[in-house]
């Protein structure tokens, strides 16, 4: 003979289920928490996106600075060659080699290298400024996300304790989080 399991439900169990299904506060809190979680996901995504942009521009700034450093080193080498050629021309004016022409050639190349190095420095500074601009909203978005998470936590506690004033606190934290999210873009 097989033994079947039967669930015997008491009036207390039915009352708890009925209360859970028909409690408007619990439904409001669940909806409120879902909305806050959605807003939190959006704020978190935007904060991460801004942080990635800042890292991209910072990387670009470092790359341009490295290229500028290489260009400046090449410029210094050409300038050293020019200086040696000028010194050789001054010390051996009757030489068969035209040191003055070498000095002029090195000076001309040095000017182009200097312009290239300055261009890389300028691009590095622009990328660094862009990184700072991209990172500015990130801090406010991170703080906004913290306030939204506190709002979710307070809403959960209010659902457990059935304290409406905690829901009001959760709403206040949520509003601050939303306000900071909006303020991050201004």
Annotation keywords:
single chain; 186 residues; mainly alpha; 88% helix
Question: What do you see in this structure?
Answer:
With 186 residues, the protein is mostly helical. The chain has one domain (28-183). Helices cover 88% and strands 0% of the residues. It contains four helices and no strands. The protein is rod-shaped, with a radius of gyration of 35 Å.
Shape type: rod-shaped
Question: Which residue ranges are poorly predicted, with pLDDT under 50 across at least 5 consecutive positions?
Answer: none
Described by strand count, sense and barrel closure, the largest sheet is: none
Strands, count: 0
Tell me the number of helical segments per DSSP (H or I, 4 or more residues long): 4
SSE class: mainly alpha
Mean pLDDT: 86
Helical content (DSSP H or I, runs of 4+): over 70%
Q: Per DSSP, what share of the residues sits in E-state strands of 2 or more residues?
A: under 5%
The end-to-end span amounts to 75 Å
What is the radius of gyration? Answer: 35 Å
Number of domains: 1
What's the helix-strand series?
HHHH
Lay out the secondary structure.
Layout: H1 11-22, H2 24-91, H3 99-161, H4 164-183
Please outline what is shown here:
By secondary structure, this protein is mainly alpha-helical. The chain contains 4 helices and no strands. It has one domain.
């Amino acid at each position: 003979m097989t033994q079947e399991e039967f669930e015997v439900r008491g009036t207390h169990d039915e009352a708890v289920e009925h209360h859970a299904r028909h409690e408007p506060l619990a439904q409001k809190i669940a909806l409120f928490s879902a909305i806050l979680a959605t807003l939190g996901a959006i704020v978190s995504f935007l904060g991460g996106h801004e942080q990635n942009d800042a890292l991209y521009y910072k990387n670009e700034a470092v790359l341009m600075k490295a290229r500028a450093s290489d260009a400046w080193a090449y410029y210094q080498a050409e300038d050293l060659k020019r200086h040696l050629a000028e010194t050789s021309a001054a010390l051996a004016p009757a030489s068969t080699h035209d040191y003055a022409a070498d000095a002029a050639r090195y000076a001309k190349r040095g000017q182009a290298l200097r312009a290239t190095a300055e261009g890389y420095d300028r691009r590095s500074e622009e990328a660094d400024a862009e990184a700072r601009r991209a990172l500015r909203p990130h801090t406010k978005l991170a703080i906004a996300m913290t306030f939204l998470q506190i709002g979710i936590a307070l809403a959960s506690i209010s659902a457990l304790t059935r304290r409406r004033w905690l829901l009001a606190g959760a709403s206040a934290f949520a509003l601050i989080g939303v306000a900071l999210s909006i303020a991050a873009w201004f």
